[in-house]
Amino acid sequence: MAVVFEKPHALTDAVLHYCPGCPHGIVHRLVAEAIDELGIEGKTIGIAPVGCSVMAYDYFRCDMVEAAHGRAPAVATGIKRCMPDNVVFTYQGDGDLASIGLCETVSTACRGENITIIFINNAIYGMTGGQMAPTSLLGQVTQTSPYGRDPKTQGYPIKICELLSTLDAPAYLERVTVTDVKNVKNAKRAIKKAFQNQIEGKGFSLVEVLSACPTNWGMTPTDALQWVTDKMVPVYPLGCFRDKE
Amino acid sequence: MAKVTFNEELCKGCGLCVAACPKQILALSKVRLNQKGHSPVEMTNQEACIGCAFCATMCPDCVIRVER
Amino acid sequence: MSEKVLMKGNEALAEAAIIAGCRHYFGYPITPQTEVAAYMAKRMPKIGGTFLQAESEIAAINMVYGAASTGHRAMTSSSSPGISLKCEGISYLAGADLPALIINVQRGGPGLGGIQPGQSDYFLATRGPGHGDFHVLVFAPSGVQEMADLTLKAFDLAEKYRMPSMILADGTMGQMMEPVVLPEPQESHNDLSWAVTGTNMEREHNIVNSLYLQPQDLEDMNNQRFARYAEIEKKEAMWEEFMMEDAEICVVSYGITARIARNAINEARKQGIKVGMIRPITLWPFPKAPLAAAADKVKHFVCVELNMGQMKEDVELAISCKKPVDLCYRVGGMIPSPTEVLEAIKKAM
Fold first, then answer.
1. For A50, phi and psi rounded to 5 degrees?
2. Which residues in chain B touch residue A22, judged by CB atoms under 8 angstroms apart?
3. What backbone phi and psi angles, to 5 degrees, belong to C75?
4. Would you call A74 and C58 a contact, using CB atoms and an 8 Å cutoff?
5. pLDDT tens for each residue of A66-115
6. Is A38 among the domain residues?
7. Taking a C-beta distance cutoff of 8 angstroms, is the pair A43, A85 a contact?
8. ipTM of model
9. How far apart (Å, rounded) are the C-alpha atoms in residues C251 and C274?
10. Residue C124 belongs to a domain
11. Is residue C93 domain-shared with residue C227, that is, in the same domain?
């Protein structure tokens, strides 16, 4: 018998601290699989965000840097400018990338930095206990939108792929999800492509992964994934927004 | 012929693998807890397993190893 | 030995950074430090380096953080309001034990303040610019030659002790032109095995990080860092003594005001007043020892600075308040004349 599935090498043996059913674990694995398959673990440098995935630096076997909240793209820029032959990626959540770090995100994309960003959008601040995120849906109840997100006072969900696709520089922007096997496989393809682009020197590549937060949404893991399909996908349509030759 | 093995202590009993299994042969234990206090996943019918690895694909914690 | 060349302070500093091996500059425009950025924008592309105008001061310091984590010598420069924004990144640099150079060409404050020279960031620089318990090495050049020399020193000590360095200059220091002998490059033998350069599948992964969720680990890290700081306080304080042999009054001043004070002291000496000066060159570590020694000999101290008396507190601490300490100050871009300083010296008699 041959092994058809096992933990990728680029993940360490550290036990993930995430809640039961948190898709961060799935996306971590997809990133690690991409790193394995491209044979780049030895030259990859990852940047962990602030948020639930802050301890990603313990989970990836490549060299890792922990950034201040939202600053991962700037940190990645500094690293890539020093180490252009290395593969540099950031792993960021929605509060990190789309709120406090929005300026860094847009500017890094605008410069077309040759880096890879894996953006986890689960429409909530998980680590701090479930506050409204820039990507929270209209009407979504969170700790800081207890009556539901009201566009009159709390604005609308921010659509990162659409926003960045107004810029000239980005090479690759795609939104995927991990709600089922088919989508996980598609997400894997997109993530691998985002790394491959960097190796080929194509420039800024970002994959937005629609994800779930069962704990703070107050749902079972399976119900949470269903909520992504039912509620998030209509607001955040899946697909490729930019794929420069 | 397929074989699925679980690194049971990593299992958090989230049930995503159970929902993903096309043969519906996975279940969370109703009688056992692992060291962390989670009900771990169990194989209920190894013979019926087709080794599709859907369970492992959906598992956030790399609990599952699949051979075929 | 290089020849003397006439250079602006900001440019001498920038060229010295290149001599020190810095090939990565990240900055954001702000008066009065813009010459540093302009100089780097011209020079870096010609020597295979990086000049990057960042989207903000915050981004610039975080680019420095990234570059520093790879073990490369990296720097940013700014002026007071911009340094406020960089404080987040400086704290992370300190927390992750990363070397880097931050230039603060100070102007008056608070808020937008003005664009004329100031020294009002003394507290900000010497108390650890950012949240948490930490220090950065702080150098206060008092001439164009020191702008160059201290830049090399700042890079070297930052790397040796794995912490950020700050050159605390001021608008005058940045703009003035003087003849300068550019320093020779020095070989560095500092350990860089902590840097993230890719594991090359030959070692365990390196992690650059300032997060310690176990309180005991965090306390241990702070204790380790402060043990290093204690060593630095013992070994690395720099100062200059001027006419202190028989002095009864000790002026304490740094940067531009030390130059004005020197003129005032020369004039006072002509008038028979026994006055000298201790000029701190490092503001952190603060040269406590020479001040403590002076406290047993002189009758009075006079601090001259472009703020409301920030260094004065360090002088009082250094001398355990054994002697009175006067303050001669101007703020908001105003600069005391030698006559004003002379009057302050006479008042202390």
1. -105, 135
2. 14, 60
3. -150, 165
4. yes
5. 999 999 999 999 999 999 999 999 999 999 999 999 999 999 999 999 99
6. yes
7. yes
8. 0.97
9. 11
10. yes
11. yes
Please give the tally of structural domains in chain A: 1
Domain housing A94: 24-243
The reply to whether C13 and C144 lie within a common domain is yes
Please give, one letter per residue, the 3-state secondary structure of C197-265. CCCCCCCCCCEECCCCCCHHHHHHHHHHHHHHHHHHHHHCCCEEEECCCCCCEEEEECHHHHHHHHHHH
Question: What is the CATH code of the structural domain delimited by B3-63?
Answer: 3.30.70.3270
Q: In whole angstroms, what is the distance from residue A20 CA to residue B15 CA?
A: 9
C184: pLDDT confidence band, cut at 50, 70 and 90? Answer: very high
**Is A5 close to B58, i.e. CB distance below 8 A?**
no
The answer on pLDDT for C2 being more than 80 is no
What's at C168, amino acid-wise? Answer: L
> Which residue of chain C is at minimal alpha-carbon distance from A58?
C207
Residue C105 covered by a domain: yes
Decide: B26 and B17 in contact? Cβ < 8 Å: yes
C280 and C228 share a domain? no
**Partner B contacted by A221 (CB < 8 A):** yes
A135 located within any domain = yes
Answer yes or no: is A7 within a domain: no
Question: What residues of B are in contact with residue A120 (Cβ under 8 Å)?
Answer: none
Chain-chain contact of A65 with C50 (C-beta, under 8 angstroms): no
**For A180-195, what is each residue's pLDDT tens digit?**
999 999 999 999 999 9
pTM over 0.90: yes
Q: Is A152 on the interface with B (CB under 8 A)?
A: no
Residue C276, H or E segment: strand C275-280
Which of the residues C53, C58, C87 would you substitute to probe the A interface, choosing the one with the greatest number of A C-beta atoms within 10 Å? C58
Q: Is C333 left (phi over 0), alpha (psi -120 to 50) or beta?
A: left
* Closest Cβ opposite residue A78 in set C55, C74, C202: C74
Pair (C230, C263) in one structural domain: no
Residue C53, phi then psi, degrees to nearest 5: -85, 110
Rounded alpha-carbon distances, angstroms, from residue B29 to A138, B15, C211: 38, 11, 37
> Residues C160, C250: one domain?
no
Q: Is residue C39, in this structure, part of any structural domain at all?
A: yes
A61 Cβ under 8 Å from any chain B Cβ? no
If one counts the domains in chain C, the total is 2
Q: Which value, to the nearest 10 degrees, does the dihedral of the CA atoms of residues C234, C239, C243, C248 take?
A: -60
List the domain range (segments joined by +) for residue C342.
Answer: 241-347
CATH at C44: 3.40.50.970
Strands A239-243 and A172-177 come out as antiparallel
* Residue C207: inside a domain: no
How far apart are the C-alpha atoms of C304 and C119, rounded to whole Å? 10
Dist CA C66 CA A194 (whole Å): 21
**Interface check C210 vs A, CB under 8 A:** yes
Same domain, C230 and C274: no
d(CA C17, CA C72): 12
Whole-number percent of chain A with pLDDT over 90: 99
Single-letter amino acid code for the residue at C48 = G
In one letter, which amino acid is C159?
Answer: E
Cβ-Cβ contacts under 8 Å between A and C: the total is 131
